[in-house]
């Protein structure tokens, strides 16, 4: 199984969600490992995202580290490095053959450029059929007003490439906050009790299933979601919690079950 953690943009909490997923998968006895093919903005011996993914499993996978904090294709050009999406696909195949559960975190958003030819979504869509069949897409989006527009647009565009998220994660953890001190648990976010909410489901109407908490979006956003989402996609909403706390939450546990059963 290949779990591809992608975002509606950069700094939306992908790595935080990815490390929590890896921790939860390992706790279930899964031989899981994380891989970030390319990381830009790296000034030391190891990228921060690469470090966090390795910390979650104790396993290190090869990452192309680029110094400039730019899109991978631009950072590679400045470094005089050739980014080859075909070589990355080959590496993906080798890692997935070695590890039964490979978590892939791509840089930036779902439609951010990967190299000079393909963006992330196009690269995923162009993978060999054997790898495509292993793919489970997890779309991470910031939990804020207007997010259903971003999610709907991403899902609609992905559908044009034959891609569909297995689940959507609404994250209150930004890139900056993911590694920061967690707020006092005695004073939790009033909009995210306990830091985590149980999984919901985006229905054709654009509403979260009544079995879970409402994500409290406006009518216009619901209408956008209704038009863009052609099938029900499970939704998990996470608040301010460490990756370890998040991994043990009912929401992430349900998400892991969904991915393993998918």
Keywords:
single chain, 262 residues, alpha/beta, Rossmann fold, 7-stranded mixed beta sheet, 11 helices, 38% helix
Q: What's a quick, concise take on this entry?
A:
The protein has eleven helices and nine strands. With 262 residues, the protein is of the alpha/beta class.
Tally of distinct domains: 1
What integer value in Å does the Rg equal?
17 Å
CATH homologous superfamily grouping: P-loop containing nucleotide triphosphate hydrolases
Strand content: 15-25%
Largest sheet: 7 strands, mixed
Secondary-structure element string = EHEEHEHHEHHEHEHEHEHH
Structural class: alpha/beta
Total strand count, please? Answer: 9
Report the CATH topology name.
Rossmann fold
What low-confidence regions span 5 or more consecutive residues with pLDDT below 50? Answer: 175-230
CATH architecture: 3-Layer(aba) Sandwich
Average predicted local confidence, pLDDT? 81
What share of the residues lie within helices? Answer: 25-40%
What is the highest CATH level, the class?
Alpha Beta
Distance linking N and C termini:
10 Å
Number of helices: 11
> Biggest sheet: strands side by side, in what order?
2-5-1-6-7-9-8
Shape: globular
What does this structure look like?
It is built from 11 helices and 9 strands. The protein has a single domain, classed as Rossmann fold. The protein has helices spanning 14-27, 48-57, 72-79, 85-98, 120-125, 129-132, 147-159, 175-178, 219-228, 243-247, 250-261; strands spanning 2-7, 32-35, 38-40, 64-66, 101-105, 135-142, 167-171, 200-202, 233-238. Helix 7 runs parallel beside helix 9. The chain is globular and about 45 Å long. 38% of the residues lie in helices and 16% in strands. The strands form 2 sheets. It has a 7-stranded mixed beta sheet with strand order 2-5-1-6-7-9-8, sandwiched between helices. It has a two-stranded parallel sheet with strand order 3-4. The protein is an alpha/beta fold.
């Amino acid at each position: 199984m290949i779990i591809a953690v992608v975002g509606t943009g950069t700094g939306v909490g992908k790595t935080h969600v990815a490390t929590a997923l890896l921790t939860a998968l390992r706790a279930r006895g899964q031989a899981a490992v994380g891989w970030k093919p390319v990381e830009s903005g790296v000034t030391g011996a190891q990228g921060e995202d690469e470090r966090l993914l390795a910390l979650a499993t104790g396993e290190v996978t090869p990452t192309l580290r680029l110094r400039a904090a730019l899109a991978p294709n631009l950072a590679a050009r400045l470094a005089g490095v050739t980014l080859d999406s075909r070589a990355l696909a080959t590496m993906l195949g080798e890692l997935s053959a070695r590890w039964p559960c490979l978590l892939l975190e791509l840089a930036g958003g779902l439609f951010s450029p990967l190299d000079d030819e393909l963006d992330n979504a196009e690269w995923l869509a162009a993978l060999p059929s054997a790898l495509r069949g292993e793919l489970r897409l997890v779309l991470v989006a910031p939990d804020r007003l207007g997010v259903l527009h971003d999610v709907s647009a991403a899902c609609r565009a992905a559908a044009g490439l034959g891609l569909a998220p297995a689940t959507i994660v609404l994250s209150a953890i930004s890139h900056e906050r993911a590694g920061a001190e967690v707020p006092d648990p005695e004073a939790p976010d009033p909009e995210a009790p306990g830091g985590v909410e149980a999984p919901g489901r985006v229905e054709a109407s654009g509403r979260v299933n009544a079995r879970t908490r409402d994500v409290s979006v406006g009518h216009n956003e619901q209408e956008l979601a209704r038009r863009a989402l052609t099938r029900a996609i499970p939704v998990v909403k996470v608040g301010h919690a460490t990756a370890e706390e998040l991994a043990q939450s009912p929401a992430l546990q349900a998400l892991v079950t969904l991915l393993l059963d998918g």
